[in-house]
Amino acid sequence: MKRILIALLSLCLSTELVKAQDLKSPDGKLLMNFSVQNGGIPTYKLSYKGKVVLKPGKLGLELKDQVPPAKFGTEMGMKSGPANPKTSLYDQFTIADSKTTSFDETWQPVWGELKNIRNHYNELAVTLHQQGTDRNILIRFRLFNDGLGFRYEFPQQKNLNYFVIKEEKTQFAMSGDMKAYWIPGDYDTQEYDYTTSKLSEIRGLFHTAVTDNSSQTQYSETGVQAPLMLKSNDGLYISIHEAALINYSTMNLNLDDQNMIFESWLTPDAKGDKGYMQSPATSPWRTVIVSDDARDILASKMTLNLNDPSKIEDTSWIKTSKYIGVWWEMITGKSSWAYTDELPSVQLGVTDYAKVKPNGKHAANTAHVKEYIDFAAKHGFDGVLVEGWNVGWEDWFGNSKDDVFDFVTPYPDFNVAEIRDYAKSKNVKMIMHHETSGAVRNYERHLDQAYQFMKDNGYDAVKSGYVGNMIPRGEYHYGQWLVNHYQYALEKAAKYKIMVNAHEAVRPTGINRTYPNLIGNESARGTEYQAFGGSKANHVTILPFTRLIGGPMDYTPGIFEMDISKLNPDNHSHLNATLANQLALYVTMASPLQMAADLPENYNRFLDAFQFIKDVAMDWDDSKYLEAEPGEYVSVARKAKGTNNWFVGSVAGENGHTSKISFNFLQPGKTYVATIYSDAKDAHYKTNPQAYQIRKVLLNSKSKLTQFAAPGGGYAISIIEADPSQTKGLKKL
C-alpha cells in the first residue's frame, strides 16, 4: 500500500511538472514561469529580482471561421463542407513536449553601436497539443539577461495547414497602474508626439494625443503602439515590442484599463483579416525588455539577437553615410517639390513639361543641386539627397492615384547625367529619392527599372516614402500585405547592392541584422514636424526608449535656425530645441545614416558648432549609456569604429538637466583633448536656442564633468586622443 501511495504521489508531481515550467535568465535575475491553466489555457508570468514584471497573462490566437475550399473539379462556388467551428488556438491544450537549451555566441554587426554583440539566452520550447482538433503549436521562450522574447510556431500538419488569423490574443498583464510613454495605436502612422501618463489616464487623454496626419486609422481609445515604454511604481523600466516582423501583421497593444492588461492587436487587411498563414510558419517575437536601471533598456541588443544572421554574404558595399540634402527648404515651404503651378493634374508619358511655365521655386534644379554638392565636398560629407527631381509632384498626393511616379523621368531642369558626373568629380555620392505616395502596386511595377536606373547613374542608396493612404485601397501601412512589400523592396534592393532608408514604413524590428542594407527608417515623428508646428521638447529623450529599440532612425537632426519664419515668412513654426541639443542627437540617436538637415547658409553662420557634425562618427566599436531617464535626459558615450576617439551626446527635456558624468570608459594612462559644445547659461529652447559655448580641455579616465543642459537643450563632446603638441595651453578638466 505504501508503495502504491508513493507511486501515485510521483505521478502527481510529474504531472504538475509538465503543467508548469520555470525558465531563468543566464544571470538568474529574470524568472519566467509557463503553465497551462484550467481549460487548457497557456499562461506565462515574469519577474525581475523578485519583483513582478508581468502577472499571469494568456497566450494564443483565434482563427477565422473558414469554409474549407472546394476541391478541384467541383462546381464553382459550391461549398465542399460545413464551416469549421474550431477557431481556438488559445485553450484546450495539454503539454505534449518541452525542451530547454542554452545558447551563447558573440557576433559582429556590419554597422552599429557595438563592434561585438553577445547573444546569450536560456530557452524553453513547449509543444502544445489540442486533442479535440489534433493540432499542435509550439511556443518558444528565450530569456536573456535583459529580457524575454517568445513567439508562436506552427509546424506543418494536416489540421493546421492554411489558416487565417482573426486575433492574436497575447497578453501583457502589467503589475499595476504604471507610468507609460505612449502614442495612439494606429494602423497607418507612428508620427505622433509622446504622451506621458498613468495607464488609467490613457482613455481620457487619447483624443488630445491624436494629431493630424496624411494617413491615420485609430482602433481603440486605449490602443497604443509598440515599442511601448513603461515605468512601474516599484522602479522597474519595461519595454514591450516585437522582433523579426516577417510575413505577419504589425502588433499594436490594446489596454484593458480595468485590469491593466495589454492584449496584442494586429493590423488588419482591407477585409479585416489579420494574417494569412501557411505552415510551417512562425509569428514575430514578442519582446519584454526589463531592468531597474533605465540605461539597460537603451543598451539592450535583445531585439537584434532575436533576428537571423545576415543573409547578405558580401556586405562590403554597405557603408555608413553622412549626408545633406535638398529637403528642408521644401519642408519649411521655402521651396517646392513641384516644377510648375500651372498643371491641375499630370499623366505620366502624356503631360509635356516643355509647354508649362516653371514656378521659380523648384529646388531640385541642376545649378542648385551643384551648390549642395560643393558644400558636401568642402565639408567632407558622403552624399547629397535630392527630393522633387522626378516628374509628377504637381498632383502626387491625396488623389488615390495609382500611376503617380515612374522613378526614372526627371524634370526639365534636373540633368541626371550632368549631376552624376559633377558629384563623381567631387567624390560625393548622390542619394536617390523614391516617393510612392502610397501607390505600392505602382512602385513594385517599376522597382527593377528604378533600381537599375539608380545603378546606371551612381546611386547606391535610396530614401523611399509612403505618404498617404495605401493602394491597394483599404490596405494599411502596417498590415501583412505592406510588411511583405517593404521586405520585398529591401531584398530586391540587396540584389542591386542598394541601401534602403524607408520613410512612413513599418517601424523596425531588428531586421537590419538579417538585411544590413536597411540602413535607416523614419517610422516615427521626425524633425520635419518641427516645421509643422513643432514637437515637444522632451521628444528626443523618449525616442531612444521607444522607436529606437527596433533599429536606427533617419531623424534628420542638425537644424541651427529654429525660427522657421526666417526661411518662409508664412510658416510660424518654432523648432523646440537648442542648437547644442541638435548636435547631441548625432550621438544619442545612433544611426549609420545621419543627415545634416539644415540649409548650407545656416551652417555657414555657425561654422564653429558645425564642426562637431563634421567630426562625429557614425559607426561604433563601443557605447556607454551614462545617464538616462525617459522624458527627462539621455547621455551617451560612443567609441568611433577603429579608433581611440570618443563622442558624447546628452539631451534634456522640458526641465533641463545637470549632468554629472565620469570618463572612466577612456583608456587609462592616455590624455585626450575634449571639445565641449554646450548650452550657454541663458539658453532656452524657446527664448534663446542659439546660445551656445565651445571650450577645449584635457581629460583622462579619472576626469569627471558637471555640465548644465538647458530646457530642450544638451551638449556634445568630441574626445580625441592627443599627442603632446596638441595639449599646449589647455587646462585639465
UniProtKB/TrEMBL annotation:
Residues 327-524 form the Glycosyl-hydrolase 97 catalytic domain. Keywords: Calcium, Signal. InterPro entries: Aldolase_TIM, GH, GH-type_carb-bd, GH97_C, GH97_catalytic, GH97_N, Glycosyl_hydrolase_97. Residues 23-309 form the Glycosyl-hydrolase 97 N-terminal domain. Its cofactor is Ca(2+). Gene3D superfamilies: 2.70.98.10, Aldolase class I. Residues 1-20 form the signal peptide. One of its GO terms (molecular function) is carbohydrate binding. This is Alpha-glucosidase. It comes from Pedobacter steynii.
